[in-house]
């Protein structure tokens, strides 16, 4: 016999009819109502969907954004910072009892549970007041995309995970429905592909609100899923590596040929839009929306923990408390540690992605004590809260600097309203280039996509870059260019660790980084040794994360990953 689980779902007390895109994503669950009283009209369905997006924001305000970028060859944890947040993940010093890993697992499955409930109810009701069939299908497509996105994160982190597509409605007394077994990675990828493929036929060309998904986003995520399925950990599964790359090209082309997305003219504008709350989905196709106001804190830590150091005095100063440094590897990728490579144009991305100075604020004024001489201590600048600007010259003719606060709206010492990118058009171009090169070698199609990204940054073409190094344009050399280019363009955007794992180079990359660090002219073993902790600790098992011990204790059908037994 089965017993009915008294199921509750979060409901929002704010009426959503007529809300703007920003307001939709600011909804916050405050009360609970039984399912029988829910999903009766479009307002309630909108509230449920907003509850899914709110869990996404919770995941990305620091865990999936900052800590998965740290501990790579792009970012390293700042041991000198007072906070230890994320340090175990960043230093490869974690196990199945790590609280940050547990939070990622729990929040991800909570998000999935909310999507399952939404899909179940939207598909299962004959009518929903004030909602057309087209609107209902689009909302189901959004839920499918969000579920697939969560499973894509989970399978890339843990590989063997349970797959649930139904809500907790009826639970058998033996808890058989509650305690699902872990599935092989291929099974998880099959569900991801099934969900996203269905979503492409349901979603609108333009999202219903900024920060929500569209048809192009589903195609872009399908390209990402197939690219990782082709990686060395899964090796194409039953689909096969070649077919995976063909699917990457297909879905990237769907985005490109839609004509709805393009590269912005200026690299810095991409991130200034996020800092200044400009709603523009031409290049950033999908982003997590954060919003801090004096009445409600729905902010994140983007630009605070992963930006430059900025002193502050009161709670409404745009303080920066960086917990990460950019790496010697990333410095080197731009050429001669951000100095112009002889014979080539300098890469404009270096000036935006790095901050080589501290910013002080005291007595109502900003000051700059000078550049940071140790290049191993430079900060990430992609989401800077404050910009250094020239205000004039002194009697000696030297530049005098002041600062401009870039954020708009209410400002808080700790929280920011800076958004975080989940899918960029530049990534689509680079994914296609990689897949085309793997299928056909260094064709003009592959090269043109890379050059589009590089030329936007003022950098040399692929041909000029390889010629300057005396290298031939081969499939292998172009693959190396693509791997480097993904870091130059997409650094700090939560992609690098997953890229290194799918290429099978995580351990190698971290070891090579250690060599760069200890041979760096600014390296001081007495002060900088902590920068080598990740490279010293990394092992083969760190290609995956351990399944949280609490999950294994509660669910006997879930087994620990073989690398962590």
Automatic annotation (TrEMBL):
Primary location class: membrane
Keyword Transferase among UniProt keywords: no
Keywords per UniProt: Cell outer membrane, Membrane, Signal
Record flagged with keyword DNA repair: no
Signal sequence, start to end: none
UniProt xrefs under SUPFAM superfamilies: TPR-like
Domain RagB/SusD: 402-564
Protein name, entry field: RagB/SusD family nutrient uptake outer membrane protein
């Amino acid at each position: 016999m089965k017993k009915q689980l008294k199921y509750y779902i979060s409901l929002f007390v704010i009426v959503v009819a007529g809300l703007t895109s920003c307001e939709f994503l600011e909804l916050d669950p405050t009360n609970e109502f039984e399912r029988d009283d829910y999903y009766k009209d479009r307002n309630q369905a909108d509230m449920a969907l907003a509850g899914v997006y709110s869990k996404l924001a919770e995941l990305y305000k620091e865990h999936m954004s900052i800590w998965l970028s740290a501990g790579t060859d792009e970012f390293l944890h700042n041991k000198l910072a007072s906070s230890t947040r994320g340090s175990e993940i960043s230093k490869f010093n974690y196990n199945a009892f790590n609280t940050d890993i547990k939070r990622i697992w729990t929040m991800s499955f909570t998000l999935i549970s909310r999507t399952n409930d939404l899909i179940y109810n939207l598909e299962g009701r004959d009518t929903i007041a004030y909602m057309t069939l087209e609107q209902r299908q689009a909302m189901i497509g959004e839920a499918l995309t969000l579920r697939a996105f969560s499973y894509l994160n989970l399978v890339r982190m843990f590989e063997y995970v349970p797959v649930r597509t139904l809500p907790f409605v009826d639970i058998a007394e033996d808890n058989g429905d509650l305690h699902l077994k872990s599935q092989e990675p291929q099974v998880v990828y099959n569900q991801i592909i099934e969900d996203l493929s269905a979503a492409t036929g349901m979603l609108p060309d333009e999202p219903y609100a900024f920060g929500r998904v569209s048809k192009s986003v589903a195609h872009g995520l399908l390209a990402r899923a197939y690219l990782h399925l082709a990686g060395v950990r899964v090796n194409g599964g039953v689909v096969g590596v070649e077919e995976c790359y063909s699917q990457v090209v297909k879905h990237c082309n769907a985005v490109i040929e839609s004509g709805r997305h393009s590269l912005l003219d200026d690299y810095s504008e991409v991130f200034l839009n996020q800092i200044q709350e400009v709603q523009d989905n031409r290049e950033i196709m999908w982003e997590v929306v954060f919003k801090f106001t004096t009445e409600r804190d729905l902010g994140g830590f983007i630009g605070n923990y992963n930006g430059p150091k900025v002193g502050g005095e009161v709670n409404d100063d745009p303080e920066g408390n960086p917990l990460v440094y950019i790496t010697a590897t990333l410095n080197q990728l731009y050429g001669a540690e951000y100095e112009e490579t002889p014979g080539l144009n300098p890469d404009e991305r270096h000036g935006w992605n790095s901050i080589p100075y501290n910013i002080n604020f005291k007595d109502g004024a900003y000051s700059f004590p000078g550049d940071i001489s140790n290049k191993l201590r430079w900060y990430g600048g992609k989401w800077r809260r404050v910009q250094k600007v020239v205000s004039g010259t002194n009697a000696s003719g030297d530049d005098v600097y002041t600062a401009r606060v870039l954020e708009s709206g209410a400002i808080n010492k700790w929280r920011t309203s800076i958004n975080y990118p989940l899918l960029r058009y530049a990534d689509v171009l680079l994914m296609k280039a990689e897949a085309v090169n793997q299928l056909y070698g260094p064709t003009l199609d592959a090269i043109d996509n890379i050059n589009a990204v590089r030329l936007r940054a003022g950098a040399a073409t692929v041909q000029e870059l390889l010629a300057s190094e005396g290298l031939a344009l081969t499939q292998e050399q172009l693959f190396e260019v693509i791997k480097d280019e993904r870091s130059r363009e997409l650094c700090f955007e939560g992609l690098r660790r997953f890229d290194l794992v799918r290429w099978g180079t995580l351990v190698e990359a971290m070891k090579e980084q250690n060599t760069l660090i200890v041979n760096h002219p600014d390296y001081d073993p007495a002060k900088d040794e902590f920068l080598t902790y990740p490279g010293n600790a990394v092992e083969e098992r760190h290609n995956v994360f351990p399944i949280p011990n609490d999950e294994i204790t509660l669910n006997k059908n879930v087994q620990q990953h073989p690398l962590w037994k």
